[in-house]
Records
---
Amino acid sequence: MANELYRILHTKLSRSIFLIILLIPCIEVVQLLLVKFQSGHELYPPFSFFLSGSSRGHMTQALLLWFLPLFLLLLGSDNVIQDYQTGSQNIFISKYGKKKYFSYKLATSFLVSFSAMFLSLLLNFILVSIFFMGGKNTKEYSLPDNLLFTLSIEHPYFAIMLFTLTACLLSGFAGLLGASFSLFFQDRKYSYSAAFFVWFFLVIRDDSLMYLFQPFAEYGFDTLLPVLATALIVFISIPTLIYFYEVKFNDG
């Protein structure tokens, strides 16, 4: 993990992508500040949080979340391709073994991706808590048949904590997915295409993956749990199959 962080911090592209991941939710804060100044109304911090999608058009959410695997590949999940191109992959495998090398790359891709999203959302939460500290929870309605929505409105800070954890876990899996395809294809063109295809397929389904990033929406446990189950099956099975194929069967 320390070696991967060192590579990210000392690579201009990785630093730039990390800053973009941090700054996209900050653009949302600026948009909401303009709304606050124009309307004269105080906004409530949990409802101003990035995942809550309070800005008009939700463009910042679409930009970051729809293309998340590509950002994470550029951040560092594809560095196995660089290892392959420079020949250092063979050195690492000879020294540590293929199983340990692949396990290390997949694990660090998950952790780096999880951490990048966590830091981005943490920064956003700090900013909305500062700029909108005077806002009050004015939402008093509930959906009697939707326990998740009712609990979220009654306990909004708990809701954003829950969805933040979910968003970070899904980001970790997005990075893991990109790293898996990078290990398999060893080519950026195919790795990026495959990772984006799988992610975007889950996004555009009727029961979209994006539901899992949206607190205070009308979707209840009956909708979100099957979406989560489908996502986990995809995000766990693909890396697992690639890992066992590369470790057990691919001697090339």
---
Amino acid sequence: MPYKANADRRHRIPKQRHRVTNWPSYEAGLRARGSLTVWFTQEAIEAWGAKPRTGRGGQPRYSALAITTALTLRAVFRLALGQTEGLIASIIALLGLDLAVPDHSTVSRRAETLEVPRPRPGRGLVHLLVDSTGLKLCGPGEWLVKKHGTRTRRGWRKLHLATDADTGRIVASALTDKGTDDGSRVGPLLDQVEGPVASCTGDGAYDRDDVYAAVAARHPAAGVIVPPQSSAVRSDTADTAPTRRDRHLQTIAERGRMGWQRASGSRDCRRRRRAEPYARARAPGVRPPHMRSDQDRAQSAYTREPCNTVKPGF
């Protein structure tokens, strides 16, 4: 929002420069990005095989931990299922472990019903940033469109994300169709967050009454920091019983947009500007530009696993 407020005189603001003052630490950090360490704990080795099933049906061979490990390596290194099978086999061989390697067909089938564990919450209050991004589902590629001029419409899915502003970690995610609006998924995202929430920050798409109601129903003490639309008006009960949105509009009328940012308690506006790119760019960065599966359950597992596993800045 500060860039929008200064758009007419942006050319007068000099570009900020960052100088590296500690080159040894900087170069060591660059080398550490390419470092790879893989190990299996004794608990993981013992839990690699599935427990015997007491009911009817075939006996599973691999536990949920083994399938989750395969999906994690697949998401981190952006591999196909067959390549993931080869990578796991190489790692197990290098470590000298006597473990069976799940084949790509088993991983694909088990991913549809796999329950991906949620990330563990932090100890303190969580400042949430909510946003969404688009994922290409299917359809012809750019080369096919250019070569043959096809007009087939591509399919898209929308991935809704809730990010911890302090750590940049995605703590909740939901995959829906492209027609689902952002504000309607705030409630389901909050249901996935374990622990107290201090504030919920979003862009103008979340300037809706049901968003405020969803946050108030689950976390009454949490603040809602959403910039109202330029054409927003106060409610009918603004004079007698003002809502949080009415207070935002009153602050904007008195102090302006920049003054509202400083007084809204977003801690302060710098947190949202610094961590918001993770909510839109981190998840696409840990998966291919298109969905690899056409099954709804598998798509949900393939999107939840990168969000829960990969750390910010990977």
---
Amino acid sequence: MLTRRQLRVKVMQCIYAITQTKDDSLEKQEKFLRVSIENTYTLYLLMLCLLREIHSMAVHRLQMDSKKYLASDTDQFPDKEKFVQNKLLRQLVENPALDEELKRRKIRGWYLNEDYVRIIFKEILKHDLYLKYMIKRGRSFGEDKNLVIDLFREVIAPNDKLYEFFEDDKLTWVDDIPLVNTFIVKQLNAVKEDSPQKYFLPRLLKDEEDMDFARKLLSKTLLQNKALEEEIQGKTPNWDKDRIAEIDAILLKMAICELLNFSSIPERVSINEYLEIAKEYSTPKSSIFINGILDKLVKEYKAEGKLKKSGRGLL
């Protein structure tokens, strides 16, 4: 789920937190990094729970309508149960593996925040996507899947109230929301009618090597902070660290640290990664500024024999 670039962003956030709190405890920052990474998966599971809760509300609504003697909105549909019988939603609802993972992580879903589910559900009921789906006769997995994907894109992901809830709950989720939403759409697009229960429980990281990379990048950047500042100072005329954007300074230190300490990662890969992060998280001119300094440093390191790259990252 998380790529190396997203792990670099997590490390950047940890280092930025230190500059704001003045707490230079490496142990605390490593814990913050682990929690931040794990919370990305929690957000993913909460979004799946949201789909399950929407289905639960639909079931409850259908049951209430069946007890009414007067006409209800569902009477216009040829198959009132079509939405609650949606095969993709049922894959999520009738999923013991997902149940077990939620229990293991002590995630109670939207138990205390049903108002947000209700807001989404009401929007779905009046949306053209839902109405066209319910009016059309017949059922198929493809149609069911397309509806869930379209509703997620058009109703759930763009909802401002939902965004505000996540933003208030955990600060790092602000950056995780687009990532998780994109990943969920990808997962939903690829799911099949016979996909195993654990399909919806992908690995958070590709392997333990990715976690080691993030930990090592964080610790080495923090521990080598003074030396990294001196590297930047030597390549910046009229150096004044107070005038350089904080994010730029952090990204430069991380990039230099990666160039010198991660031999299996080609220098161009490292540079490109930090330029892309700068474009998203810093000023409009940051990527040009960072690229200029890193280019100078790479040439210098190569001439001095400091830049030693080897291993499968060069293949």
---
Amino acid sequence: MLFRSIGIGVLLLLASPVWGCDACGCSMSPSYAALMPSLGGHFVGFWWQHQHYRTFADPAFDAGARPQDEYFNTLEIRGRWEIHPRLQATVMLPYAYHLRQDANGPRTVSGLGDVTGLLSYTFFDNSDSLQQKVRHRVVAGIGGKAPTGAFQQPAANEVVNPNFQVGTGSWDALFNLNYTARSGRSGLLLDATYRLNGAGENGYQFGNRFAGLLSLFRVEQIGGVSVMPNLGLYYEQADWDIENGYYRTYTGGEAWLANAGAEVFWQRYNLGVTYSLPLQQDWNTGLVEARSRVALHLNYFF
């Protein structure tokens, strides 16, 4: 049975852009969390994410302006190479397409995003042991993001512009810690990722980011197909951005989101979908309102 022959892990590769106006765009990452099997070997896949945000004008500059709807779309090519059974390297190549609807009509930006790499090491794993009632897996990762995507310096009175682009303009460091426990067909996942952002050549620096995930999952076997529904609680937090040594107002914040999704495994293929909805949020001192998120991915293991 597939569930017994593999361990269940997570691929949480936060790197290139993801939140909007400090909560999206390129401030966090278009990458998203997904429960993945720790199948031996390598994989290549396509990962797509869509996010919707509503932004409001700074009342000090334009109190009568109407809110703007922003849609962030990212398509990634992800590849993982197993250097050693306990050591894996993953690379993400994103392409971003963002759309903003305002009184002047639609505005779009698109292009190659910031390339990200992550090196993960499994410190403990007894997930294949049938003698243990509860099996555990602990993985830690370290990585970085290169400023391959375009970034334009924001104007002083613009709230949304810093993130409405495809790159951050900086070299960033990533740190990840993941714990998985399972008993029988059910399991629990805890994941934490911290992103340490550098400053770009133009003096703009996005605030450091933290993201945490708690997810419950269960595996069901339907013929030759394994289906894994999951429910989770996701938390993300961002510090204030810094521009030329000074904190930039109306940046930073935090949010709690509810996740629901499913993973399907068939032979060497994996198809997954995740839907997220904000439960509580405070972005950019209330000037940014996160809406729903949808994510899809398709992987091939070899």
